[in-house]
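thread: overnight batch results

M.L. [08:02]
morning all. the overnight job finished for the chain we discussed friday. pasting input first so we're all looking at the same thing
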Amino acid sequence: TTQADINGTLKSSYAVKIDANGAVAGFGLASTTNALGVNESEFIINADRFALMRGGSNTAAAVTPFVVQANDTTINGTLVPAGVYMDAAFIKTAAIQSAQIGSVNADTITTGKLNVTELIEANAINASQLNLVGTGTLINLQSASNGSRMQILSDAIKVFDGNTLRVQLGNLSA
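M.L. [08:03]
and the structure it wrote out:
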């Protein structure tokens, strides 16, 4: 449909809709001028599942890189909750309010606060200041696991030359 009013405002739309026993699917294209006089275009899809697929003349197995799943469903025996699914994505910039991520591979992570509930594992921690708060009596910092090293416990400091204890401060029975 195309409409024009006396003020020169144009509206144009095209829609396809099918209804099979109440399962409605369709899409619509529209170009309108909003109340502020700005031209807008819309492409709206109504479906329980929407996907973009590679196809055309390519006869290789179809790929679905992007799917919007409106309802929970079972695919190949696996429950797939409603949501947006991407096979792979490259995102230039993202603002994410909350994320549940199985693993992260990153060159650099910049944060104001890192909250870890179990354990931080690292080959080295490079910090201008290390503040251990609420550790109770469980402090055990060592510069090496054996050989020449310094060890800081909650109640003693030990310095080893090779495996020989040379200096001990604090609790001498520790």
